[in-house]
Amino acid sequence: MYGVIENQQASPIAALVEKLTNSIDATLMRKYYEADLDPTSAAAPRTMDEAVRLFYGAAAANWDLPGFRRAQAENIQIIASGSVRQPSLVLYDNGEGQHPANFETTLLSLLRGNKNNVHFVQGKYNMGGSGAIVFCGRHGYQLIASRRYDGTGEFGFTLTRKHQLRADEENDKKNTWYEYFTVGGRIPSFPITDLDLGLHNRRFTTGTVLKLYSYKLPEGSRMVTRDLGRSLNEYLFDPALPLLTVETKERYPKDRALERVLYGLKQRLEKQDSKYVETSFTEDFQTREFGAMRVTCYVFRTKVEGKTVKESNKTIQDEFFKNNMAVLFAMNGQVHGSYSSEFITRALKLSLLKNSLLIHVDCTHLLPKFRGELFMGSRDRLKEGEETKELRKFLMAQLGKPGGRLAELEKKRKDAIAVDSTDAQDLLKNVTKNLSFNPELLKLLGSTFHRRRRILQTIM
Question: C-alpha angle 157/158/160, rounded to 5°?
Fold first, then answer.
């Protein structure tokens, strides 16, 4: 299985998202088992949204309120430990958990398709959770511990790692492999009532805990409650359940917000009092070729909190575009692929909206056959196939049409530019950055703006 583990997500953030998605799946599965229902039956929910409504009912509506959302989020936690430079991450979920005897067919298995017949969970390939191993330091160390949700059985644990080839193996083996720890051929275990595992506001009784040692987070994402949280919010655009990110005083002794709830970018964008979003709109499309699709466009303000255009742009990029994703293709709230702002400037021809437009494409209700040709099994990028090309053309035609909502917003931005202001100069620099102009065209553009400035000054 070396090839399966090594050929998944290219980014440590996307790989971590797969772990969190598994935690959400496990939490929903626990609810189903507690209700003594068969998750593979025809009566089972067909989507995650249906499952949340069934299992949580009115409680889910209260997640819009911070207190209720926080209480639910404590059931799935991401906790940082170790040094600031090389943090280890603990992932906990109060989900279904596993008996030690079942580790090898569940938590340690690959390509078994354990969730293929369960429609209300995200997982189906039985491999995504292993993608994070390659980012666990040099040696791929990862601790896995679990106890079944009903308290039956013992607390089992194991450690995975990348096998270090010995001198006598190097000549015989082309590749190394990944292995896990057993005692006498079995997953080690022991009885517990509860354990202090450093979880926030609780002791461990049942569920699953993973520890990713020396996780290779990108620069600027090492503080899990703020920087990493922003990145995870992008990938988990609209998660079925809220999660809790937890920092420690040892890592950040001066920080006062050591715990923050993570509930997806959508929740942040659609706040009624948003200081960032100027306007948003949603369009529903349906065709015979690809089925139903919902597209939501969020247009950000050019200036926020009294900052200049340049300062505002930097703030917006840091808050909402940490992973350079301007068009998000999502299923069940999780991003499966994306376009950069190149799509906005080249495909839609909306240069003034380049740094101010975020497009969310909900692919949950696309036809399964069409959707299956869009995304890679790693769920972090689009396939370069005919279906992807057709979808791109369709979005270009619908969102970039003359007289459309985005075209009107682009025109509004053009009309609002005050040519003799510093902000206008900043905006012009942002628009023309990375665009190739020949020298004569640049001269013409410059003289045009100088003429308009003189006219304005005369009028004033």
Answer: 150
pLDDT tens-digit profile of 164-211?
Answer: 777 667 667 667 788 899 999 999 999 999 999 999 999 999 999 999
pLDDT at residue 287 in the model: 93
The total domain count for the chain is 3
CA distance 238 to 263: 7
Two tokens at 223? 């503080």
**The whole model's pTM is what?**
0.85
- The H-assigned helical ranges of 321-402 are 342, 368-372, 386-399
Using CA atoms, how far apart are residues 144 and 171, in angstroms rounded to an integer?
Answer: 32
Closest CA to 178 of 213, 130, 221: 130
Cβ count near 97 (within 10 Å): 28
Predicted confidence (pLDDT) at residue 116 exceeds the cutoff of 80: no
Q: State the Cα–Cα distance between residues 359 and 392, nearest whole angstrom.
A: 13
Question: Is residue 219 exposed (0-12), middle (13-18) or buried (19+ Cβ within 10 Å)?
Answer: exposed
Q: State the pLDDT at residue 165.
A: 73
Q: Of 214, 235, 263, which residue is a domain's last?
A: 263
Residue 360 shares a structural domain with residue 445 = no
d(CA 357, CA 297) in angstroms, rounded, equals 7
The closest alpha carbon to 362, from 318, 386, 409, 395, belongs to 395
Q: Which domain holds residue 455?
A: 417-459
The tens digit of pLDDT for each residue in 360-381 reads 999 999 998 999 899 877 777 8
Asked if 126 contacts 134 with a C-beta cutoff of 8 angstroms, the reply is no
Residue 354 belongs to domain with CATH number: 3.30.230
φ/ψ (deg, to 5) at 330: -125, 155
**What does the alpha-carbon distance between residue 358 and residue 352 come to, in Å, rounded to a whole number?**
13
Q: Which of 140, 170, 144, 168 is nearest to 157 (CA)?
A: 144
DSSP secondary structure letters along 44-106: S-SSHHHHHHHHHTHHHHGGGSHHHHHHHHTTEEEEEEE-SSSEEEEEEE-S----GGGGGGT
Dist. CA 460–CA 454, nearest whole Å: 10
Res. 91: pLDDT tops 80: yes
| CB-CB neighbours of 59 under 10 Å | 12
Q: Do residues 90 and 247 lie in contact, with contact meaning Cβ atoms separated by under 8 Å?
A: no
141: CATH: 3.30.565.10
